[in-house]
Design a protein that fits this description.
This protein has 316 residues and is α/β, with parallel strands linked by helices. Helices cover 33% and strands 17% of the residues.
Length: 316
């Protein structure tokens, strides 16, 4: 049997890329990437764009030619007109799967639309509601990271508590006061459990990282955004006994829940949008995470990865 020809549309948003690649990797088998570079027209609403390559820079359009794929996987609003155009050029002989809401226009063109429950939209019978964001943190990736990182943490007392810090978003600020509070609470949790912290910040943490690190007074392994050397993020997820994650990123929270370890979400009200709050509630209700209070407890949950659910629907 010939393998289906799969194209994955990759744009300039890292979150969109990891969602699309998470799904295609869950399918198994070969695939080809098509990298998108947008023109200013991509800012127009999809209802205006329709099925078109016009939102792409001219040179970028040249990579779309026969033979057309059997399946296109894409994430994010701006990829949707491109996926629809490919299907049209393939005269419908190509299925298109869209991750996240492409908007109300042209939804019948999609064979499957995967929308997070916390978005509270549905687009008809071709919609699959998912918990969190699909991602690439699989058990085999975690095993690989374990081999690389475990020896680098071994001098630290257990339990190892990962502290995964995001930061400010377009709508909300991660303040110096929040960073201090988080650093203090995480240190207390490590102290009371006799353990240590595995800390990583992100590009969005900004100068508040100083305030966070000022509060750390327990044994720790620190990685600060921009440091030289490999980012230990996947190693932390693989090796930590429990994980504290800031609630500003759906992807980070979803990836923390890819393990079966206790996950605690730090989500002070001023940092969190209503949409993110709904997402956290769904994780709490389904038993994947708990609010971060500073209490160290041992519990487990099934690993969360919506990529598997989407892949199962595609395989049908």
């Amino acid at each position: 049997v010939n393998e289906p020809r799969i194209w994955v549309l990759i744009d300039n948003r890292a979150g969109n890329e990891s969602q699309s690649l998470g799904v295609v990797e869950a399918l198994g088998g070969p695939y080809e990437e098509r990298r998108l570079q947008y023109s200013l027209l991509a800012m127009l609403p999809n209802a205006v764009m329709g099925a078109t390559f016009l939102g792409l820079k001219p040179g970028c359009q040249d990579q779309f030619m026969e033979p057309w794929p059997d399946l296109v996987i894409a994430a994010g609003r701006r990829t949707a007109p491109v996926a629809r155009k490919i299907k049209r050029l393939a005269r419908g002989a190509c299925k298109i799967v869209q991750i996240m809401d492409p908007g109300p226009a042209g939804t019948a063109a999609f064979d499957l639309i995967a929308i997070p429950r916390h978005d509270v939209v549905t687009r008809g019978s071709n919609t699959l509601m998912i918990t969190g964001a699909p991602h690439r943190v699989t058990s085999s990736r975690l095993d690989d990271a374990s081999k690389i990182w475990r020896s680098r943490f071994e001098h630290l007392p257990k339990p190892w508590i990962a502290l995964v810090v995001g930061g400010s978003t377009r709508r909300r600020k991660f303040s110096a006061a929040m960073a201090s509070e988080l650093g203090r609470m995480a240190s207390e949790m490590a102290q009371e459990s006799g353990g240590s912290l595995l800390i990583t910040t992100s590009r969005r943490t900004g100068p508040a990282a100083d305030n966070l690190y000022d509060e750390i007074n327990v044994p720790s392994f620190k990685y600060r955004w921009g440091d030289n050397g490999d980012n230990p993020y996947t190693g932390y997820l693989a090796e930590a006994d429990s994980i504290i994650v800031t609630g500003d990123s759906v992807s980070m929270c979803s990836e923390a829940c890819a393990t079966d370890k206790p996950v605690y979400i730090y989500a002070p009200k001023p940092l969190i949008t209503a949409k993110h709050a709904r997402f956290h509630q769904s994780l709490y209700q389904e038993g994947y995470a708990r609010p971060f209070t500073g209490l160290y407890e041992e519990w487990t949950h099934p690993p969360l990865n919506a990529a598997n659910d989407i892949a199962a629907m595609i395989k049908g």
